């Protein structure tokens, strides 16, 4: 396990990167714990992966807007399930919190969740119990009883392996969709829809229909999200290394038309500029809190 933490006076930010033995299905597993931080509004950014969170220190409070997250209509759940989405979720970050966040490959949703990722289309926050059933509440209770991160990761790995092993033919994804996702991932969101459709021997319209039903996104939307994820990971990596990210160069390297094109995508997916997002998340980035989903 990889462990990182940052102390700032009385404040502690701790992140632990674990393993599940489910390569290709669980992209990453990160345990987190914070103590003594100033309460804040955190942006849960879109990514090419589904999000599954087990909170170990009270329910996660979130919303589609800052106003909802802070208001009486906020969503509160101990187990968070999020589909692929194209705008940020807003999460209240309290003075202390702890949990485990998993990034799940969307094409593994049938095996791990019992339904295609498309069934969660644009559900930024849903109850994990509603999606996974009552058994997951028992797993959540057992996770809370554990005191060591390694034991928690082991418990989750066993639970998810059991679900994957029980998946039947309904767990199979059409090979054309699987290859289309792999093609987009290899190209990090670059390429054209026509080129992708030709690669998997489907018409663009038929590919889009099948792809959206399986993932909840069109191929173009998935490509754009993958490109943003790649650019964001470079920004985070440079900041972590102590460098000042060169957004114009990153835009060029990631296939954006220009710097302003990258900024527009950042604003869509974060609701703020790259500079403002980095200022908000600097402490979490330094502690390793933005590695969830990176392969």
Low-pLDDT parts are none
Largest beta sheet: what is the strand line-up? 1-2-3-10-5-8-11
What shape does the CA trace take?
globular
Helix content: 40-55%
Instruction: Write the H/E string, N to C.
Output: EEEEEEHEEEEHEHHHHHHHHHH
Total count of helical runs of at least 4 residues: 12
Number of strands: 11
In whole angstroms, how far apart are the ends? 15 Å
Secondary-structure-based class equals alpha+beta
Largest sheet: 7 strands, antiparallel
The overall pLDDT average reads 91
- Give the strand content: 15-25%
Rg over CA atoms: 19 Å
Task: Write up this protein.
The protein has 295 residues and is α+β, with helices and mostly antiparallel strands. The protein has twelve helices and eleven strands. The strands form two sheets. It has a seven-stranded antiparallel β-sheet, with helices on both faces. The protein has a four-stranded antiparallel β-sheet with strand order 4-9-6-7. A hairpin with a 7-residue loop joins strand 2 and strand 3. Helix 4 (135-145) packs antiparallel against helix 5 (149-166), helix 6 (175-186) packs parallel to helix 9 and helix 10 (247-253) crosses helix 11.
